[in-house]
């Protein structure tokens, strides 16, 4: 059964604790400013907290809602980006490994050049 989140849950989860579990001021939270000031907000490095205390990465958009010119709320849409974040992490690791291989191979080739005296000379 999928977890259910209310606007209250979302607001509380993003303003009381980030990924580190440390609190932040509600007025500094982007989605809260969108709700109170009518600003559009987007973030792709936030987390949602489950009732069991675990979290998962989300990307969200918050759009203000107006009725007769008055700000009455916000529509907040979020996506679970766990798979995307895992893929980005894997790509980062693979890129780092590739860079190390290139450095090692370049060093090896330079050693071979110097050993055989085929290095370029000015």
What can you see in these coordinates?
There is one protein chain. The chain is an alpha+beta fold. The protein has two domains: 7-80, no CATH class; 82-115. Helices cover 43% and strands 27% of the residues. It contains three helices and three strands, in the order ααβββα. It has helices spanning 7-16, 30-37, 82-116; strands spanning 41-49, 55-67, 70-80. A three-stranded antiparallel beta sheet has the order 1-2-3, sandwiched between helices. Strand 1 (41-49) and strand 2 form a beta hairpin. It is elongated and about 80 Å long. The termini are far apart. The model is unreliable at 5-17 (pLDDT under 50).
Quick overview of this protein structure:
The protein has 122 residues and is α+β, with helices and mostly antiparallel strands. It has helices spanning 7-16, 30-37, 82-116, and strands spanning 41-49, 55-67, 70-80. It has a three-stranded antiparallel sheet with strand order 1-2-3, sandwiched between helices.
